[in-house]
Specification:
Distance between the termini: 60 Å
Order of helices and strands: EEHHHHHH
Helix content: 40-55%
Structural class: mainly alpha
Largest sheet: 2 strands, antiparallel
Shape: globular
Number of helices: 6
Number of strands: 2
Length: 131
């Protein structure tokens, strides 16, 4: 949201009926998604991107909580039925705002020391390693 200080993971939502909301996917919202679904966040996000309505509803409902705690899950489902594309786009923007460094090409994970050197730390000096 240019020109405005926003919370990480915050994005506007304007529905076709003119109602305006601010969605926030902050850490509290993300933990709420896991608590609600009983699944790790990555799995829920993956399910939502595959079209699972329950996963999308859990994420959307959590995103309303900070600024619009009065919005119920039932209302989120009605919004999803009437404004699915707009809601999905807003949630996508909220995810991008919450994880700006992970969008696009993320650096490859570095192997842990135990996997790259199974025998322990090696000396930088030449010669045999002493026991």
């Amino acid at each position: 949201m240019p020109g405005r200080n926003s919370i990480k993971g915050e994005t506007p939502l304007v529905l076709s009926d003119g109602r305006e909301f601010t969605l926030v996917l902050d850490m509290e919202a993300l933990v709420s998604v896991e608590d609600t679904t009983g699944k790790p966040l990555g799995k829920v996000m993956s399910q939502a991107s595959q079209g699972f309505v329950g996963a999308m509803a859990a994420i959307a409902h959590a995103a309303f909580t900070r600024h619009h705690p009065e919005v119920t899950r039932e209302e989120v489902l009605r919004m999803a039925m009437g404004d699915e594309e707009v809601l999905s786009q807003a949630l996508g923007h909220a995810v991008e705002a919450a994880y700006p460094d992970e969008v696009g090409n993320a650096p490859a994970a570095k192997p842990s020391p135990s996997k790259s050197s199974p025998r322990g730390k090696r000396s930088g000096r030449s010669g045999a390693k002493r026991a």
